[in-house]
Amino acid sequence: MLRVDEAQAPVEFSPELISKFDDIVSRYPKGKQKSALLPILHLVQAEFGWVSPIAMDKVAEYLSIQHIEVYEVASFYSMYFLRPQGKFVLEVCRTGPCCLVGAEKIMDYIEEKLGVKEGEVTADGLFSWRGVECLAACGFGPVLQIGPEYTFYENLTPNSVDKLIAELKAKGHN
Amino acid sequence: MARKLLLEHINVSGINTFDVYRSKGGYASVEKALKTMSPDDVVEEVKKSGLRGRGGAGFPTGMKWSFLAKPEGVARYLVCNADESEPGTFKDRYLMTHIPHLLIEGMIVSSFALGAKTSYIYVRGEMMPQIRILERAIAEAKNAGFLGKNILGTGYDLELYVQPGGGAYICGEETALLESLEGKRGNPRIKPPFPAIAGLYGCPTVVNNVESIAAVVPIINEGGEEYTKIGVGRSTGTKLISAGGNIKNPGVFEIELGLPVEEFLYSDEYCGGIANGKRLKAVVAGGSSVPILPANLFLKTINNEPRLMSYESLADGGFVSGTMMGSGGFIAFDEDQCIVRNTWNFTRFYHHESCGQCSPCREGTGWMEKVLHRLEHGHGKMSDMDLLVDVSKKIEGNTICPLGDAAAWPVASAIRHFRDEFEWHVTNASEAVSRNYGLAHYADPLPKKEETPA
What cofactor does this chain's UniProt record say it requires (chain A) (predicted)? Predict the structure, then answer.
């Protein structure tokens, strides 16, 4: 369940963000601004870490569409977080080809290392992790990605996971 | 040495930049097409080439183009499908990462052929780095006069945009992709009308895979006739194969269609054989949706002929003893892999990715996942295999889009070819959770060059 304070956290779109929205809308014919919905939701998530109900309502108003049109899209696509996450979300591919080369062991290792279950956030607020479906990198598995730029980490081993988490921790505390 | 039409310059340093790409003959096809050919000439060359859609369906690209309606005063669109999500497939990511201008060049020539003034490349949202790469490449091409108004002074205008998806396998289906590009849930549309008549914003639209569009470049440069000289029969040209799983050299390979499967799998130029001295147990040749084959049926057809990497040879034997080229996602399974576990994994994938519109797919994939889960975890029943086949048959052909078929085929083929492994999971339930069934009688039929160490 979303906590009340999370759900009601105020959302303000900066003029810079709005100008990025405008740029995206200009790619489509007049009256087809709804096409901008998916790219705009990515920008919102990059800015706020997740897509909150208030943010979705504001996106709807910006695009002059119904609120429900944003909710149904945000809940359909797997990349949008409908609740707050850790600062870094480790998304590990869990589909067949990666499992042939040890993805399940890597997920177990990440769970043990971070001390939280899939979908939970660490106490310091820095990390969460989840299994995701095929990331189209099957020759370089196991792989994980970290948004909002979706940086890729390939051929994972427990050692490389240790190193990555240490780096992110150092970055996250700055 | 096999000919490379797409990846010839892949190792040239800086080939991802406009200047280096141009210095290697890049954008010649744009000059040739826009200055010396009519749009119909371009369509004709692509028809002649016999190019078949590289996204999975294998439908002739030129024919797809010729279906495009051209009513007066109505915009037409070309949309590139870069939603690459089929498990086992990673060729489009590779192409866009390393040689993005090849796709841009193909998009310009193809858009010209179809009369599109605005085109979109729909890239799966997870490929944000590739989206950045393409956006930079588009800016470079525009700067050099290959995009925008009055391209090369020919009077042809084209704007090209990159659109991110939101993480949904279903958006690789062309009508779901168009829904998504319109800012909606990725629910496939009922056809007809086909996108060629009513696609993006209700306008005539062609949707093509990244590799299909890239292949237009060498076809225009060298002519459709030349293209047909590579390959075998109706499998013309070259194909990118993404090879993964338990092989020595995983990666993306450009092959001439018709290459013997044995050479692809075992030669050092390609996969380099099975990793860690293990033996091959099974292969999924064209992405997770195509039927899985045991090694013995994969390397040779049922008539004991060597199998080739071509649309026809891979399909030889139909669904009884053959498979499909699909998207070229080649997954090799070694002797330590459990077919039941992998089938469960794939089915979970399809259940997760079903859009939920059609009951047979939405419900059927979930039930198959549950039954496979219990088989894999030692709680299966002997009747489960027939139950799975029954459910898969009730999905197949009964859904709006091919995701239903794609979910049904891996299950049906796994049970067809590996039924004894499934049964062993029931009769030896406690053993099955702690060890794998092993190679059994599925080994490839080739004489072994060296003995596998005990």
Answer: [2Fe-2S] cluster
